[in-house]
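Chain and conformation:
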Amino acid sequence: MSSRRMTTAFEISGSVLAMAYALLIASNTGNEILGFSLLLVSSALFAGWAVIDARWTFLLLQAFYATSAIIGLVRWG
């Protein structure tokens, strides 16, 4: 798979998962574990995109999001 196709796949799937995460957390319906799990997967996909495109500040942001997801999983788990 070309790097262009990979980044497109990472961008789209990461964005969809991030939107689902936000809705699950904001809905306050007891789906926090699923929401934070989606955030963790989303940040991993975005991190892959950042590495392929050499966007190091964006990679640092994904490390922050991954850390937030882990904290959420520990707190709600």
About this structure: Residues 50 and 58 are 6 Å apart (CA to CA). The mean pLDDT is 96.
